[in-house]
Design goal:
single chain, four-stranded antiparallel beta sheet, seven-stranded mixed beta sheet, mainly beta
Length: about 120
Amino acid sequence: QVQLVESGGGSVQTGGSLRLSCAASGYTYSSYCMGWFRQAPGKEREGVAAIDSDGSTSYADSVKGRFTISRDDAENTLYLQMDSLKTEDTAVYYCATLLGGWSASSWGQGTQVTVS
């Protein structure tokens, strides 16, 4: 059974940084493409960053140059380093296993990020 548990969210001032973590279990983590999504109040969930099993990455235009996705396959953990945060980055952030593109098969419970 796939389990994804996010942590690291919180409140930060504009221009600050946060690092999100996602601990994965219940499946062969290293074989999967992984991604981070976010959902702001009143908006649809959107893909933020993705990383393939070979380490190749992709980002939404809104976060390019500010966010960095990485993975530690030995620890079955996904990370999202968020720098130069803006108020519009405020959202609940979710990690997910990806089937391809931004199509997700499993989700974590989410972690709140508030930038003010």
